[in-house]
Amino acid sequence: MYMRELNQQPIPDSIKKGLRILFIGYNPSLTSGEIGHNYAGRGNRFWRLLHDAGLTPRLIKPAEDRDLLEIGYGFTNIVARSTRRADEITRQEYAEGRVRLRELISEHTPMVACFVGKGVYEEYNGHRSIPWGVQPESAVPGVIDFVAPSSSGLVRMKYEDILEIYRELSVLVNR
Question: Which residues have C-beta within 8 Å of that of residue 2, sequence separation ≥ 6?
Fold first, then answer.
């Protein structure tokens, strides 16, 4: 695996003002870091979830992630460094990422900041025991905080249960 880690490249934020959704992950997987695109791991269900939830008109490939700016979807992570698992992220990386992320959201004010994983949102705002979906309070005024399950294949929720939450996101942004 050491050689694989040497081939990592930063994945640039894909963001602009006026987004419908800014998807926020923990950090890139090793596969995503190798190819430079979001949610590229073989077991990651992100692109299938977006399609099945009605958020994209067809199944998107990871290499097309930046094309989604055209329909109002952007991407970033709380931590830029690629790892095998989120538990490899340091407290310092989260602290720095929290500040950067709040600035990014404040500057670009997407309609929805969708945190892909409860842990991402917990690291972002410090709240625990949060529900799925729209959060009662937003960290940045004028931006809806929405928490969706991680799309990683390591998540043990049933696909249909995860999909239902992504469908709520689709209803929210397509009203």
Answer: none
In angstroms, the CA 150 to CA 36 distance is: 19
Q: Is 170 helix (H, G, I), strand (E, B) or coil?
A: helix
Q: Which two tokens stand for residue 124?
A: 């972002």
Q: Which residue has the tokens 């929720």?
A: 157
Exposure of 51 in the CB half-sphere (CA atoms within 13 A): 10
Token pair listed for 115: 């945190």
pTM above 0.90, yes or no: yes
pLDDT digits (tens, 9 = 90+) for 119-129: 999 999 988 88
Largest CA distance in the chain: 47
CATH architecture of 2-173: 3-Layer(aba) Sandwich (3.40)
Instruction: Convert 3-25 to b/e letters by CB count within 10 Å (16 or more is b).
Output: eeeeebeebebbbeeebbbbbbb
Kindly indicate the confidence band of residue 4, based on its pLDDT and cuts at 50, 70 and 90. Answer: very low
SS3 content of the chain, % helix, strand, coil (to 5): 40, 15, 45
Other beta carbons within 10 angstroms of residue 60's beta carbon come to: 20
Q: Which run of H or E residues covers position 146?
A: strand 144-148
